[in-house]
Amino acid sequence: MTITVIGTGFVGVVSSAVLSSFGNKVYGLDVDQQKIQSLSSGKIPFYEPGLEELVKSSLEKGDLIFTTSYEEAVSSSDVIILAVGTPSAPDGQADLKYVFSALESLAPYLKNGTIVAIKSTVPPGTNAKAEEIIHSLTNVQFFTASLPEFLKEGSAVQDTLHADRVVIGAKDEQAIEILKELHKPISAPAVVMSPESAQMSKYAANAYLATRITFINQIANLCEVNGANILEVIEGIGYDKRIGKHYWYPGLGYGGSCYPKDVKELAAYAKAKSQNGNLMVKIDELNEERIPKLMEKYKNRVGGWAGKTVAVLGLSFKPNTDDMREAPSTKIIPLLIKENAHVKAYDPITIKTAQKIYPDWNIEYKNDVYETIQGSDIVLLLVEWPELISLDIEAIAKSMNPNPVFIDTRNQYSEKREHMKSLGIGYIGVGLI
């Protein structure tokens, strides 16, 4: 098939690369000339394991073409996939201006029978608006569909190649069969439903996962005042098949490009539908206040931040990505600077991103984790990068200042906390005493 993916952000590039690897001819379309030139040379503007190799392979085979021309990309395509951004509008709901703009631009070049599928995260009902826009600009027959994505940054290529499911939101049987065929190499169940249900599924999935994180953080708070151990609690509830041991992450709350945005948008959407007082409002509120409350508690535990040297380990919002959107570091480092702490920071991938996005941070970046820890009073572990969860405890003890404190916001060293204490390191975890 010939496919056009409009939008060359995270979702768009991953989708283009994977679909072209299946032998399809794929156009990656974007209005950003500089980005298209970079992608055409095989350079990816963000870090994602395995993606650059996949893109370069498809470029060399001629199966993947990046372009700024709607006429070139759209006129021969069987399926057009919209993967443009949907930032939040002032009222909190998704701003669909980029979706609508792309629809207006593609409509004049549609060939008869093309499927226009929206992969961007949009509220239910968007497809009806999309059809109105296209119908106003062309008389050719076309079909619309919803293809929500469920990717995780840091494992997006594998998530796509080995998906749990492919959700297809469409009404026309011919369009459904074509989209099934397109995704057949993935060997995942194709779950067919209405476009509205497909779009709601994306919001529901992210909101539920965000709720699990918020829920276990609330339980962790109770554990810290009643003597319970959050890790033992997770073990205790995990054997219940209705609950499971997976996806319990007590810590600093959820971040990244999806959960915060989607929870806020779902809350705003619910309000717009007269569903006031919905759960999403509270989930968002609890997550927003999570880091400030923890940092105040840590401040009291360490006797204040002023004059202390703090080694911050991990700048991205999660491992295996350089994405800093809603990352804990973006909230914690400014607070430490304001409190007159001397901040040193290390991340295996994200330092250049941090320097570019936050040039005003008055901190000391290091290229080695042990050099970062050397001479520090406090270590703040924020991200569970493999390199950061296998540190030499004795080396840490020898290199830190007297009366050191190790704040483990990911509970990665919980089993070694007694060893740390024996070496004179004060250990602070989440939901642990």
Short description:
This protein is of the alpha/beta class and 433 residues long. It has helices at 10-21, 33-40, 51-61, 70-74, 97-106, 126-135, 156-161, 173-182, 195-226, 230-238, 259-272, 279-302, 328-338, 351-357, 369-373, 393-399, 417-422, and strands at residues 2-6, 25-29, 64-67, 79-82, 114-118, 142-146, 166-169, 190-193, 309-313, 342-346, 364-365, 378-381, 405-408, 426-428. Helix 9 (195-226) crosses helix 11 (259-272), helix 9 packs parallel to helix 12 and helix 11 crosses helix 12 (279-302).
What does this structure look like?
This protein is of the alpha/beta class. It folds into two domains: 2-193, 3-Layer(aba) Sandwich (Rossmann fold), CATH 3.40.50.720; 259-428, NAD(P)-binding Rossmann-like Domain (Rossmann fold). It has helices at 10-21, 33-40, 51-61, 70-74, 97-106, 126-135, 156-161, 173-182, 195-226, 230-238, 259-272, 279-302, 328-338, 351-357, 369-373, 393-399, 417-422, and strands spanning 2-6, 25-29, 64-67, 79-82, 114-118, 142-146, 166-169, 190-193, 309-313, 342-346, 364-365, 378-381, 405-408, 426-428. It has a six-stranded parallel β-sheet, sandwiched between helices. It has a six-stranded parallel β-sheet with strand order 11-10-9-12-13-14. β4 (79-82), α5 (97-106) and β5 (114-118) form a beta-alpha-beta unit. α1 (10-21) crosses α3 (51-61), α9 packs across α11 (259-272) and α9 packs parallel to α12 (279-302). The longest helix has 32 residues, at 195-226.
